[in-house]
């Protein structure tokens, strides 16, 4: 049952009491009907209804029935009553919300979205989180295009040198980006695995950071290793904090700059859908 947001009038104490006799002429509801009505009360309060009259109007029951339902929900802590305000969502819902989030592993919840990205792009798809100064890969769907990438589940990479790492940093201050850039830079200034590969400068990363923060995405333009490019976006939870990142990656022949630009709306859309599943 979908309850639209409402503009409630100022709450009066008498609104907690039904104006009708508690003995209603409504037929006795079945267990399923009672459950749905109780859920309707919770959704009405979540949508902004604060008094019995408004809740009853939204769920289509009498005020006496609404009063019984609301009183039961208050007793069980699914709702609370605040003087001069009215009905609000209760602490039990907060507890259940956190429990629901903890019970579903992020990688399991993300799997359908990652599979969708794989199907649509044919490229390697990653899910990762931040762990200290590194990216920690939680899931990988190998791509159909080009050679397999060396990333692995449980593998770590420097945050600012990967697209998915930059996506995880979109809410972080510039000073944090600079710190991470400095700690990730090899002492020699060259990556020992690819000594001939040019490292991005702080000035280049700083300029790109501004673009990424404004656009809500991030690129890896061969910043971590030669010939690897990726497009990434952040995933947010109910608190709107970035809790993970997803990316689409491939080698340069399969990931030209034009394709990267085209992938931005898609990966942002998939990341937003996953965020919605997390309450974000």
UniProtKB/TrEMBL annotation:
SMART domains: HTH_ICLR (SM00346). SUPFAM superfamilies: GAF domain-like (SSF55781), Winged helix' DNA-binding domain (SSF46785). One of its GO terms (biological process) is negative regulation of DNA-templated transcription. The keyword DNA-binding applies. Residues 32-91 form the HTH iclR-type domain. It comes from the Bacteria. Residues 92-280 form the IclR-ED domain. The keyword DNA-binding applies. Gene3D superfamilies: 3.30.450.40, Winged helix-like DNA-binding domain superfamily/Winged helix DNA-binding domain. Keywords: DNA-binding, Transcription, Transcription regulation. One of its GO terms (molecular function) is DNA-binding transcription factor activity. This is HTH-type transcriptional repressor AllR.
């Amino acid at each position: 049952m979908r309850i639209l947001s409402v503009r409630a009038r100022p709450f009066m104490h008498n609104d907690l009491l039904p104006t009708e006799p508690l003995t209603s002429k409504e037929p006795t509801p079945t267990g399923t009907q009672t459950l749905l009505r109780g859920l309707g009360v919770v959704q009405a309060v979540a949508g902004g209804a604060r008094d019995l009259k408004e809740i009853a109007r939204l769920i289509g029951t009498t005020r006496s029935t609404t009063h019984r339902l609301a009183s039961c929900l208050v007793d069980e802590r699914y709702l609370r009553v605040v003087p001069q305000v009215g009905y609000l969502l209760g602490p039990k819902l907060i507890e259940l919300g956190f429990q629901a989030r903890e019970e579903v592993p992020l990688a399991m919840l993300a799997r359908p979205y990652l599979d969708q990205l794989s199907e649509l792009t044919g490229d390697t798809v990653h899910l990762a989180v931040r762990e200290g100064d590194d990216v920690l890969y939680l899931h990988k769907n190998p791509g159909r295009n080009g050679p397999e990438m060396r990333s692995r589940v449980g593998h770590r990479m420097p945050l600012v040198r990967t697209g998915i790492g930059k996506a995880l940093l979109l809410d972080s201050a510039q000073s944090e980006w600079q710190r991470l850039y400095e700690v990730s830079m090899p002492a020699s200034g060259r990556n020992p695995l690819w000594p001939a590969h040019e490292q991005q400068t702080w000035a280049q990363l700083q300029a790109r950071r501004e673009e990424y923060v404004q656009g809500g995405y991030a690129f890896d333009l061969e910043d971590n290793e030669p010939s690897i490019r990726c497009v990434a976006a952040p995933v947010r939870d109910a608190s709107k904090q970035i809790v993970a990142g997803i990316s689409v990656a491939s080698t340069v022949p399969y990931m030209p700059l034009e394709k990267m630009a085209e992938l931005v709306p898609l990966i942002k859309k998939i990341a937003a859908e996953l965020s919605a599943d997390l309450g974000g």
